[in-house]
Structures are given as C-alpha cells and as structure tokens.
Specification:
It comes from Paraburkholderia ferrariae. This protein is of the alpha/beta class and 349 residues long. The protein has helices spanning 2-17, 21-27, 29-41, 44-49, 55-62, 66-78, 93-98, 108-122, 125-131, 144-149, 152-176, 194-202, 217-226, 262-275, 297-309, 318-328, and strands spanning 53-54, 82-85, 88-91, 184-188, 207-212, 233-237, 250-254, 281-286, 331-337, 343-348. It has 16 helices and 10 strands. Helix 14 (262-275) links the parallel strand 7 (250-254) and strand 8. The longest helix has 25 residues, at 152-176. The protein is globular, with a radius of gyration of 23 Å.
Length: 349
C-alpha cells in the first residue's frame, strides 16, 4: 500500500510540474509560419536587401495598413528573421542570404509555393487522414501537375522552388560522391537543372543530362545557359513511366520516389537499373525517415504532405530504400547522410 501511495504521489507531483507550453507552441506554430510566408509573399526581404527601411517607408512601399504593420514587422524581429536598430528594419544574415530574391541561393520560390499551395491544402489534413485522398486540385477532379504546368509563370515558380530547396543538397552531393570515377550523369526529374549544373560546375570532366517532361525544357535551357554550361549539359524530354531513361554512368533521383506509391517506386528503380551500364551507380535522395521512425519529424511530416498532395505517395526509411534497390538488382548499397535531414542511398548496377 505504501508503494502504491508513493507512486500516486510521484505521478501527481509530475502532473503538477508539467506545463502545456510546449503543446501550445506546437499547436499555434502556424502563426509563425504564416507570418514568415506572408513576408515572403510581400517580398519584404528583397526590399530590405536594398537597404534598411523604417516602418513608415515599408508601409508605403508594400501598402501595409498602419493598424498591423508594426506588430507584423516586430513579430519578424522576435522570430529572428529581421533586426531593428534605431527604428530601421533590416534582414538578418540568414534572411539576407536565403530570402532576398536577388540572391542566387534564395529559397523564396519554395516558400511561395508553400504559401500558395501547401498552406491552404494542409487545412484539410484531417479529411486526408480519414479518406486517404489528396486535398489539392485532385479533390475537384483536376490534376495537380496540370495545374502547376498550365502556364509558364506557374511552372517557372514551381521549378525555381525545387531548385531553391535542393541547392544545398546539390552542393553536398557534388562533394561527397566520387565523381572522379565517372564521366556522365543524368538527373531524373531535373526541374531547372540545379543539381546537374552544380555537379558539372564542380567537376569539369563530367557531361550531364537533365530528364523531365517536355514542358520543362525552356526553363531548363534558360538555367543551363545562365550558368554557361550548354557545352556539357543537355535536356532529354520524356515521361519516366513511359519512356526509356537516358543512359549515363550515374543516375540521380532526388525527391522523386516519395511522390509515388510502392508499386511505382519499384518500377522506377527497375527502370533505373535497366538504363544504367554495368558498374553504373544510382543515387536516390529524399528526406528519408529514420529507421526507428522516432527522430526525423521533417521526413514524417513530408510523408503527410505526400498524402495531401498525391494519390499514393509516401516517404520512407533508408532501410526500405535499400530493400527495394536490392529487389531491383543493385549491389554494394550504402547510405550517406545529407543536410536538412536528407539522406542518399547509393547502389551499383
């Protein structure tokens, strides 16, 4: 009896010491995220990239109502993306590097996509969890890729977003993989071509191919021309479920597999195996969930995003990816961590 009373007393003490603050902060996290996304939508960080401004100047320049402008700007200071000194607002170093659209490493395109697409669709997450169905344009019988690719401006925004969010990974992959042992690379689902451009820029002996749907070609070609790499990189149009993948010594599939269901994932890996020469390598990278499914919250949330955005897509662990690659015939499979809670799985044909 004394032991039971002691246990109850301990549990009561722990309950009394517990605080709801962590739960409240987590639950209201959308306040902070939408404040940041609205700042990106207003192009605040590009404006401040040209120099500090007072609140009055920013109100005039961005047509902000005086009722909320100071709270909005000071919230961004409190969130650590703006600084304020003597009434002048300026970007933090981080915001200046990654949110000013005039900078090459800018990720504003991805955040605009998050604001314009993902934020409203995630409002229906509960419905997605109950039905297992996407909550984007497909909900009304449309095709999300048709919606994105319908006009050139929307397509360029989407592809630019993919480049922005992948640039740091591209630099890591360009450094970590032994490219000196290979002569050519094909990037499947290449978007603007940021990955293949970074690899080719870092390793001057390599020739590259960007593989994607035909509509992507003008955006890809503009990006490659802007990087003066037309002599070593070309675009190959196609649908990776219909057309044969172009052959190269190394094939990369980045943020591709998670878009598709298990059968389609296996099909893409089999198609990759068929396209590679003997001794060729496949690199798959995604925000892979840790094998114990306890730590990589971003990977798990990304998988929920696939629920909201795709009919059957889901994220996966490195262990699962290894198993699928073995089934496809790959050998000497290894896993290497990348930044941003991403990992790459490498297999040899």
């Amino acid at each position: 009896m004394e032991t039971q009373l002691s246990t109850l007393t301990s549990e009561t003490a722990n309950a009394s010491a517990a605080s709801p603050q962590k739960l409240l902060q987590l639950a209201m996290g959308f306040w902070a995220s939408k404040t940041l996304l609205s700042a990106v939508e207003l192009d605040l960080f590009t404006v401040l990239g040209r120099g500090p401004r007072t609140a009055t100047q920013l109100m005039d320049q961005m047509q902000l109502h005086p009722r909320s402008a100071h709270d909005f700007l000071d919230a961004l200071v409190a969130l650590g993306v703006l600084d304020r000194d003597d009434g002048l607002y300026r970007n933090t170093a981080e915001a200046d590097a990654f949110l000013d659209r005039s900078r090459p490493g800018c990720i504003a395109g991805f955040l605009l996509m998050a604001n314009n697409r993902l934020y409203p669709f995630w409002g229906s997450l509960t419905e997605a969890l109950r039905t297992g169905l996407p909550q984007n344009e497909a909900k009304e019988g449309g095709n999300p890729f048709d919606a994105i690719y319908r006009d050139e401006r929307g397509l360029r925004e989407f592809l630019g977003a993919m480049s922005g969010v992948s640039m740091d990974l591209a630099k890591e992959i360009a450094q970590k993989f032994p490219w000196q042992n290979y002569r050519s690379v094909v990037d499947v689902g290449t978007a603007q071509g940021a990955l293949v451009a970074e690899i080719a820029r870092t390793h001057e002996h390599l020739a590259g191919i960007g593989f994607d749907l035909p509509a992507v070609a003008p955006v890809f070609n503009d990006y490659i021309a802007a990087n003066a790499l037309e002599d070593r990189i070309r675009f190959h149009p196609g649908d990776f479920f219909v057309d044969a993948l172009p052959s190269a010594d190394v094939m990369v599939m980045g943020h591709i597999l998670h878009d598709w269901n298990l059968e389609q994932k296996r099909e893409l890996l089999a198609r990759s195996y068929q396209a590679l020469p003997a001794g060729g390598c496949l690199i798959v990278y995604d925000a892979m969930i840790d094998d114990e499914r306890r730590r990589n919250a971003f990977g798990l949330l990304m998988s929920l995003n696939m629920l909201v955005e795709t009919p059957g897509g889901f994220d996966y662990t490195a262990r699962q990816c290894r198993e699928w690659m073995i089934e496809a015939g790959f050998r000497e499979i290894r896993v290497e961590p990348l930044g941003g809670q991403n990992s790459m799985v490498i297999g040899v044909r």
